[in-house]
Amino acid sequence: MNQLKLTLPESIATALPVLKRLREHQFEAVFVGGCVRDTVLDLPVKDVDIATSARPEQVLELFERCIPTGLQHGTVTVLSGKSAYEVTTYRRESKYETHRRPESVQFISSLEGDLQRRDFTMNAMALTEEGGLIDPFKGLEDLKNGVLRCVGDPNARFQEDALRMLRAVRFIGAYNLRPSQSSWQALIRYRKLMKYIAMERVLAELDKMMAGKTPERALYFTAASGLLHYLKEPMPEEAVLAVDEAYGNRCADESFSKLNRLKETDLRWAAVLMSLSLAGDSAEQTLQSLRFSKLRIKTMISILSIHKQMLDAAINKDEPSIRLRWVEMILMYGKKLAGQWLEIVNALQPSLLNGLNVHVRRLEDWLDAISITTLKQLHVSGRELTEHLDRESGPWISEWLNRLLLEAALGHLPNEKQALLEQAESWDKEETNHE
Ligand code: ATP
Ligand code: MG
Question: Residue 20 belongs to a domain with what CATH number?
Answer without folding.
Answer: 3.30.460.10
